[in-house]
Amino acid sequence: MTTTTLSYLTPSLPDAPPLVHDSRVFRGSAGRPLLAPRGVWAVGGRLIVADTGQNRVFIWNHIPDTEFTEPDVVLGQTDAAETGRNAGGGAGASTLQYPSGLWSDGERLVVADAWNHRVLVWHRFPTQTGQQADVVLGQPDFSHNEPNIRGIGAGPTERSLNWPYGVTSDGQRLWIADTGNRRILYYDTLPVDSYAPATAVIGKDSFTERDYESEQPIWPYSVRLGPGGQLAVADTQYYRTLLWHDWQTAPHQQADVVLGQPDFDSNGQNQYGLFPARHTQSWTYDAYFHGEGLLVADTGNSRLLWFANVPTQHNPPADNLIGHARFDTGSENANTRFGTDRQLYWPFSICTDAERLFIADTGNHRIVISHFTH
Q: Are 23 and 372 in contact (CB under 8 A)?
């Protein structure tokens, strides 16, 4: 197989040094390529992809260097060709239904199994296709998969989940974006037992609270940790990213900074503008700390925003972007009218590993792999 480069992927503003170079496309298995992948993670030379539309997680033990490469391990299915929800049956320790967020330190793996309303943990990194998870969170056992355990309309608890799309860890603690319950759950240790209760909740006054205010996460899709102890939450439905300067304060206070809106009460898509701008966001699904700065997956605008330093004030303008040559270009503008194969189209998830950037380019059903220029 050959390597498909993205020589026309816009790496930055035209009057700024390019943020990335040597961008290329990876589409997964040749026999059954990726379909709407919403999660990507790279660690220790491995690549992990949540092939969300086909209810699988793929693992490559080495970063692929061609457009198609067969996976070394398939989770959620019996092989790479199978795609059914929960492998065509009921929920179990080896099944998945709409997996999304991923985290791994190379020794353990955590998967947000969103439509099973649970998070799965492998305490030993999976080496076998169909390998069963060791721990389930959000459900009393591996066979249950209703929202908040008891089904639609049931209230949340410290043990329940409802559409959890995002996960992150620092290797010791665990955070889950419990999206459907409009909150983030925090565990002071990475659980070793199933059905473990969360230690604290971010975005609510208690574990059973369902009402919400505009200063709280409205639809938290991803949660990320910064090198300085910051916490970032992509708050999709309010077209914004929330930042806490210190993750330890997050259960006790509203975010310190809001990106994409002028204040906590505002919720306009691109701040009610016809076109995006350098300080606006639309359907924001991820954020990722890199070096001294922050990347934001401004998904609805089909671009990544780059903040050279982690913002400390509301409504900051981005310093640069990937995916468009101008800040006022979005998903529905003229340069996407005839196709998006040389551009980003609805990127849902981003991660970095040393000098490389990995983008789940969801609308194009692929992973984009680039090298940073700095």
A: no
